[in-house]
Design goal:
The protein is α/β, with parallel strands linked by helices. The protein has two domains: about 170 residues, P-loop containing nucleotide triphosphate hydrolases (Rossmann fold, 3-Layer(aba) Sandwich); about 130 residues, Orthogonal Bundle (Helicase, Ruva Protein, domain 3). The protein is about 40% helix and about 10% strand. The protein is built from 13 helices and nine strands. The strands form three sheets. The chain has a five-stranded parallel sheet with strand order 2-3-6-1-7. Helix 1 packs across helix 2 and helix 8 crosses helix 10. The longest helix is centred in the middle third of the chain and has 16 residues.
Length: about 325
């Protein structure tokens, strides 16, 4: 009899690349699951480097729009005089240099999701037009009187305090309230330190494969120093540091990439651990925490930021097998 797959395919990638299982991150992912099935506007807030785009993608991936386009725009990266055209498009001849018609991001995202990063940088003159398209799902291209109707789900992100900006008159309060229908605040990395080891392992694996360098050991001192650092640049800074460490590595040992003045004294025994042991322990602990449920939104694969099939492959490679029904207290109905 053919095996029945217990979970739909999209479950395997619902939180792909969102790495960690700390309580702070779990709380965020629970909010994401609640709002994703709706069409409500989401405002993702958090410090630079906390992974706001990954959360926006996760919202799209588990929404009914997951088969449609995910279009993104960094509002701070576009010159002010071109931002309106990027959002709404323009007709040929609408302004000097407009030699052809251009389709804007709202049209490109029709029936899908539009992610506006750094939304706090949208100039005041453009904010009423953004408010209109959010309220009415209508807009006109530059140089045209024709009204276009779209069906777009908006996810916005910012590291700025829009509440204070609105009080100072730097951001329209009505636009802020329209964006802030469902706020999701991402914790900084210093508030989810228990996720640092798995993030380190993830980036070591990523860059060692990319650079064809084998990393077999992460010294305990190095891992402890990375776990103790304050990470003002959050996950993006950690990622860049691990890339540096892989470049500097010799003999399969990951060095401490932190400047000496940043590294904190640690009081742990100077023993080394292998990546294989670290990965095996992490997977075992995660499996036990979810009672050996592998797939689904609450399963081990989702908590580890892996596809279900990838986790199964790693379990086989590391010699991890599920306890027998006779000796196990764990529920295994969702396992393969």
């Amino acid at each position: 009899m053919a095996a029945v797959q217990p979970f739909p395919v999209f479950d395997e990638r619902r939180f792909e690349q969102v790495i960690g299982n700390s309580p702070a991150l779990e709380s965020v992912l629970e909010q994401v699951e609640r709002v994703a099935t709706t069409d409500s506007t989401v405002l993702v807030q958090g410090e630079t480097g906390t992974g706001k785009e990954l959360i926006a993608r996760a919202i799209h991936n588990i929404s009914p729009r997951c088969g449609r386009s995910f279009v993104k725009l960094n509002c701070a990266a576009i010159p002010m005089d071109l931002l309106e055209s990027e959002l709404f498009g323009h007709e040929k001849g609408a302004f000097t240099g407009a030699i052809a018609q251009k389709i804007g991001r709202f049209e490109l995202a029709d029936k899908g999701t539009l992610f506006l990063d750094e939304v706090g940088d949208i100039p005041a003159a453009l904010q009423p037009k953004l408010l209109r398209v959010l309220q009415e799902q209508q807009f006109e291209r530059l140089g045209s009187n024709r009204t276009h109707q779209v069906d777009v789900r908006l996810v916005a992100a910012t590291n700025r305090d829009l509440t204070k900006m609105a009080k100072r008159g730097e951001f329209r309060s009505d636009l802020y309230y329209r964006l802030n229908v469902f706020p999701v605040t991402l914790p900084p990395l210093r508030e989810r330190r228990e996720d640092i080891p798995v993030l380190v392992a993830h980036f070591v694996d990523l860059y060692s494969r990319r650079m064809s360098k084998q990393i077999e050991q992460i010294p305990a001192e190095t891992l402890s120093a990375l776990s103790s650092y304050s990470w003002p640049g959050n996950i993006r800074e950690l990622q860049n540091m691990i890339e540096r460490a892989v470049i500097l590595s010799n003999d399969g040992v990951l060095p401490n990439p932190l400047p000496k003045e940043e590294a904190r004294d640690v009081t742990i025994p100077p023993t080394a651990t292998t990546l294989r042991d670290s990965e095996r322990n992490l997977i075992l602990n995660t499996l036990e925490s979810v009672r050996w449920v592998i797939g689904g939104p609450k399963g081990a694969a989702a908590k580890l930021g892996l596809k279900r099939t990838t986790l199964l492959h790693k379990m086989q490679k590391l010699g991890i097998s599920r306890p027998s029904l006779e000796s196990s207290r764990y529920t295994t109905t969702a396992a393969p």
